Amino acid sequence: MADNVEAIQKSIKWYFIIGGALMILSGATVGLSYVELPTHSLNILVGMILATIKASMVALIFMHLNHESSLIYKILAFTVVFAIVLFTLFILAHEDPLVFPGFYAPVEQQ
Fold first, then answer.
1. pLDDT digits (tens, 9 = 90+) for 13-35
2. Quick one: which of 60, 30, 64 has its CA closest to 47?
3. CB under 8 Å to 43, separation ≥6 — which residues?
4. N- to C-terminal Cα distance for the chain?
5. Does 110 have pLDDT greater than 80?
6. What is this structure's pTM?
7. What is the distance between the alpha carbons of residues 11 and 6, in angstroms, rounded to a whole number?
8. Are 19 and 28 in contact (CB under 8 A)?
9. Please, which of 14, 25, 37, 68 could form a disulfide with 72 given CB 3.0 to 4.6 Å?
């Protein structure tokens, strides 16, 4: 970490910059809830992208993961790829839901 006053002041400056960016992105997330994009899935996708950016900023700066070894970056890269795959599966499933004919039909009582 920091050994002198200048380095500490530089760190504090970055904390305020990232904190301000997090406030702006949180406002964008709230604003997104009032905007209707062409598809509902696009709203969800943009919201998840904003959440991912905010989580990355918190992890890198406030949790000091930007000073870790390369193993951490490999694990985080795998996590990002896994999250992208899950987002893709969600959007594909949301746009093409399975419909079973007669599944919701009322059952005749005897």
1. 888 999 999 999 999 999 988 98
2. 30
3. 32, 35, 36, 37
4. 76
5. no
6. 0.62
7. 9
8. no
9. 68
What is residue 62's DSSP assignment?
Answer: I
Using CA of residue 52, residue 53, residue 59, residue 62, what is the dihedral sign?
negative
Give CA–CA dist 87/41, Å, rounded.
10
**Residue 53 to residue 89: CA distance in whole angstroms:** 20
Is residue 44 within 8 Å of residue 90, measured between CB atoms?
Answer: yes
Find, among 5, 110, 106, 91, the residue nearest to 45 by Cα. Answer: 91
Closest CA to 22 of 64, 50, 63: 50
Average model confidence (pLDDT) across the chain: 82
